[in-house]
Amino acid sequence: MTDPSTPDLPAAERRSIVRDSLGVGIATGLYGVSFGAVSVAAGLSVLQTCALSLVMFTGASQFAFVGVAATGGGPLSGALTALMLGTRNTLYGLKLAPLLGFRGWRRTASGPGDTPPLTTRGPTRVG
Are 78 and 61 in contact (CB under 8 A)? Predict the structure, then answer.
């Protein structure tokens, strides 16, 4: 059911949004599959790989952690490397915050969505 206060999107714009969404979804899915394969090949169990995906949001940070672990580095070294790499998302969030216009708990909850695909495609869809 559509919200009566929002006008329907033109068909061309809707197709463009769906096309962009599918591209991001397929790329993210393939990235996730490759991370799972690399992680298990590096010696982590499937459960550990799934846990990493739950607690470590950015894919680049996940690959960095697994790379450090696979070469014999300690968990702390892997975690710090991943943390440093993941801090770039803070900059994405700062750039997107005014565009999204969320306030209160919604602003906090939107944090995990501040990723490169949203940063590159999102601003073209806002306002």
Answer: no
Helix (H, G, I), strand (E, B) or coil at 8: coil
User: Which of 13-17, 26-30, 63-67, 97-101 shows the lowest per-residue confidence on average (mean pLDDT)?
Assistant: 97-101
Q: Would you say residue 2 lies in a domain?
A: no
Domain membership of residue 54 as a residue range = 11-122
Tell me, yes or no, if the pTM score tops 0.70.
no
State the alpha helices, DSSP H only, in 3-124: 11-41, 46-55, 59-70, 75-86, 88-100, 105-109, 116-121
Distance of CA 20 to the CA centre of its chain: 15
Q: How many CB atoms lie within 10 A of CB 47?
A: 8
| 1 falls within a domain | no
Q: How many domains does the chain have?
A: 1
